[in-house]
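@channel sequence for tomorrow's demo:
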Amino acid sequence: MMRIIFGAVLGLLVAYPALLAVVLAVVAAAVSQPAVLAFAVGVLLWPRITRTVRGWTA
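structure tokens (generated this afternoon):
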């Protein structure tokens, strides 16, 4: 699923080069917010965290 999303975003950036500036602005705004960054990292790592904790309790 992530490969499809990544490919779609990459295709849009190739088709519409002006979109690159918009994407960079959104990424810069998101990275400058520590809470947003922490939430994104938590969402990405949640499956690994749950497997690790499940291993501790089993």
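heads up for whoever presents: The mean pLDDT is 85.
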